[in-house]
Automatic annotation (TrEMBL):
GO MF term list: transmembrane transporter activity
Signal peptide region: none
Similarity field: Belongs to the ABC-4 integral membrane protein family.
Compartments where found: Cell membrane
InterPro entries: ABC3_permease_C (IPR003838), MacB_PCD (IPR025857), Macrolide_Exporter_MacB (IPR050250)
Protein name: Putative ABC transport system permease protein
Domain ABC3 transporter permease C-terminal, first and last residues per copy: 282-393
Predominant localisation class: membrane
Spans through the membrane: 17-40, 277-302, 323-349, 361-382
Domain MacB-like periplasmic core: 38-244
Topology class, membrane: Multi-pass membrane protein
Length: 400
């Protein structure tokens, strides 16, 4: 039977070429959409690596042309920490989680070099404020004041990039990976701890390599602005936000303060992330529907062009059900050929490591594309096959 089907397909190779092309195009589109869906879904299920609930972000800015002395800033933080409802407070860099602001660089250790890595500044209370999870070593402490090198805490994926499996990391030195860089004691960072991977980008972003560098307390730096994270008790809201703003204004009215929750930042980032994904989904659905309509039209046209053949087969004893099964089987064989060609193309992605995606995601996308393509072609071929099964031999031969 299959040999006969292949002969029929070959005899109509020009007409079937369009059908093969449409099915192949559908497969590739579905593979691309499936890869994105599985990638984002896999990222969404990963642990975030920190606790953003009940954490607020304070943006404290000095007046235009003014500076904020660090001792005054430290006094402000002490007063805010003493407010009822405030559990902890931490000073850091402005690239807090979910913000549209990044500070990144590349780092090296020996002959190993990292990819782009997020770089943060953080004080000694940052770990408990944001809820990071230590894997090795410790967070910054007062004893680091005597360290001639700047202490650093890195994420697990940065550890894997810069150090061999099982290699001790605590106390090791990391340098910026600039071209022609000559390391000195001030340009080296000493690793004191390793934390779990974090996903500060969005709900659908993957783990990002990160490094936190210690902010030296009680220095003499004059800042133009400060980014502060405040961990509050559950249930706190606008009333505490107003007390924080009034407390800072009571120290100096030359500074302005903006208070936002990390949850609000997360939702803003989520909306921006979902907009292109929704547009891509609409485009993908539109293409698939158009391909399905095209397949349906091509199959319908093929049957109308083969009425004489159908009438002759019925006159020679073929049943209506057999005719319908034949056309459905032809479509499935064509689909198999198109999917095989699509698999030969898409299997190159995991083999070559294209776009850095894990092979498991590509494999699941191939399975999804294969299943949906066979489903679409089966549905599109069902009604034309029923039409072919209903053709009466006398009517078909009389028309011919």
């Amino acid at each position: 039977m299959l040999r006969h089907i292949f002969r029929l397909i070959w005899n109509r190779k020009r007409a079937n070429l369009l059908l093969l092309s449409e099915i192949l195009f559908s497969f590739i589109v579905l593979f691309g959409v499936g890869t994105l869906l599985f990638t984002f879904g896999q990222n969404y299920l990963l642990p975030r690596g920190f606790a953003h609930q009940n954490v607020w972000r304070l943006n404290i800015s000095a007046a235009q042309g003014e500076k904020m002395p660090r001792p005054v800033l430290d006094d402000v933080l002490r007063q805010v920490r003493a407010l009822p409802g405030v559990l902890d407070i931490s000073l850091g860099s402005p690239n807090t989680p979910f913000r549209f602001l990044t500070m990144n660089s590349e780092f090296r250790h020996g002959n190993r070099k990292s990819d782009i890595t997020d770089r943060y500044d953080a004080d000694d209370r940052y770990l408990t404020t944001l809820g990071l999870t230590l894997r090795e070593g410790r967070w910054f402490q007062a004893r680091d004041d005597a360290n001639p090198r700047r202490p650093a805490v890195i994420t697990q994926n940065l550890r894997e990039a810069l150090f061999a499996p099982g290699e001790p990391v605590l106390g090791q030195l990391i340098q910026p990976a600039d071209q022609g860089f000559q390391a000195t004691g001030q340009e080296e960072y000493q690793v004191v701890g390793v934390v779990e991977n974090v996903r500060p980008g969005s709900d659908f972003s993957g783990p990002q390599s990160g490094m936190w560098l210690r902010l030296v307390p009680y220095d003499t730096t004059h800042w133009e602005g400060a980014a502060v994270l405040v961990k509050v008790a559950p249930g706190q809201g606008p009333a505490l936000q107003q007390r924080i703003v009034r407390t800072i204004a009571g120290v100096t009215r030359q500074w302005s303060t903006e208070v936002r929750t990390l949850e609000a930042d997360r939702l803003d980032k989520l909306r921006v992330t979902l907009a292109p994904l929704a547009a891509l989904a609409v485009v993908g659905i539109f293409l698939i529907v158009n391909v399905a309509l095209g397949l349906f039209g091509v199959l319908w046209y093929n049957i109308s062009q083969r009425r004489a053949e159908i009438g002759l087969r019925r006159a020679m004893g073929a049943t209506g059900r057999g005719i319908g099964h034949q056309f459905l089987l032809e479509t499935m064989v064509l689909t198999t050929l198109a999917v095989a060609a699509g698999l030969l193309l898409t299997v190159q992605f995991p083999l070559l490591g294209a776009f850095g995606g894990p092979p498991r995601v590509y494999g699941m996308a191939m399975l999804l594309a294969t299943g949906v393509v066979f489903l679409i072609t089966a549905v599109c071929a069902w009604q034309p096959s029923r039409l072919a099964a209903r053709i009466q031999p006398a009517a078909a031969l009389r028309e011919e």
